[in-house]
């Protein structure tokens, strides 16, 4: 965010590429594996719930910390480094893996054709593009960044509640085989 709008956009494009990769994998393979091995999906579900609890704890701890946030100076020497950073962040993000696995395993019917799956990939990609490019444009503005930093405790508290609620919903949800 601190390097400017162009670097933020390249980071967003990297994240979007990661989303496309996970979406395609889930749509055309991972979902089938998870549907045929419900035990694997159940284990991923519980691991995801534990990860969300961990994020909730970290967010709550951050919200209760009175010191200012540590804004690290990220060294991005080129747009390609920024793109690769976004790509690697998303490809290694457990939330992304769980989201795409759940989306195609639960929300897409088993009767979906390859064209239907491709339509879901396109729609999810369009929504993701709007969100991540919007973040890049919004947070590359110094005033917005400063407001976010000043309001850190409020945002972190909301994130803690969101992650905690999502975790408990996952733990207590019943997966239909």
UniProtKB/TrEMBL annotation:
Q: Which Pfam families match?
A: LysE
Provide GO CC annotations from the record.
plasma membrane
Give a yes or no for keyword Transmembrane helix in this entry: yes
The source's domain of life comes to Bacteria
Where do the coiled-coil regions begin and end? none
Membrane topology term: Multi-pass membrane protein
Q: Where in the cell is it found?
A: Cell membrane
Main location as per UniProt: membrane
Q: Which GO terms describe its molecular function?
A: amino acid transmembrane transporter activity
Q: Which UniProt keywords apply?
A: Cell membrane, Membrane, Transmembrane, Transmembrane helix
Instruction: Write down the InterPro entries for this protein, in alphabetical order.
Output: LeuE-type (IPR001123)
Membrane-spanning intervals of the chain: 7-32, 38-57, 87-106, 118-142, 154-172
What is the name listed in the Swiss-Prot or TrEMBL entry for this protein? Answer: Lysine exporter protein LysE/YggA
To which species is this protein native? Gallaecimonas xiamenensis 3-C-1
The lineage, from the top, is: Bacteria, Pseudomonadati, Pseudomonadota, Gammaproteobacteria, Enterobacterales
